[in-house]
Amino acid sequence: MTISYIRPIVPGTAPGNTTGVATRAVGQPLPLIAVLVSRPPRLSNILYSVATLDDRGRVADRQMTAALNWTAATRLSIREHDGLLAVTADPHGVFKLTKQGHVRLPADARRAGHLRSGDRVLLAAQLDHQTITVVPPVALDELLLPVLPGGEDA
Predict the structure, then answer these.
(1) Can you tell me the distance from the alpha carbon of 105 to that of 108, in angstroms, rounded to the nearest whole number?
(2) What is the pLDDT of residues 23-38, one digit of tens each?
(3) For residue range 124-145, what is the model confidence (pLDDT) as tens digits?
(4) The organism sits in which domain of life (predicted)?
(5) For residue 125, what are the CA distances in angstroms to 63, 75, 120?
(6) Which residues contact 20 (CB under 8 A, 6 or more apart)?
(7) Cα–chain center distance at 127
(8) Domain range for residue 85?
(9) Which pairing describes strands 84-89 and 131-135: parallel, antiparallel, or unpaired?
(10) CB under 8 Å to 134, separation ≥6 — which residues?
(11) Is residue 19 in a domain?
């Protein structure tokens, strides 16, 4: 019995092409297939991101602060609610962004949110309300474990 293998078909790249994009002989990129995905419309004006909390309590995501038009002069208030941290633009707030544009969570807020250095947090910026909600891993576990396969046993 003879085993035959099917050789994979891999489009080559033109000599001198260092982009890694396969090209036709005339130098035009290969066509891509358009895939239409039906999605329900967004229900809110919320921007999501994931960031790491550093050892000084900084959450470095300048896209969030830029989308909210926050600057180093923007005053912020930070409140804990049901394990989540709400960072809100507040003219009477006692906190500010760092000079680099990062949100810095004070130690009391980190303790309230059960956050440690190196934790990855979900950030949800409500653009209409000038608020970033910081969702700690503990809150994500509570939300997702009941619906993940084998999650209830974890």
Answers:
(1) 8
(2) 555 666 766 666 666 7
(3) 999 999 999 999 999 999 888 8
(4) Bacteria
(5) 10, 16, 16
(6) 13
(7) 15
(8) 46-144
(9) antiparallel
(10) 59, 84, 85, 86, 87, 103, 105, 113, 115, 121, 122, 123
(11) no
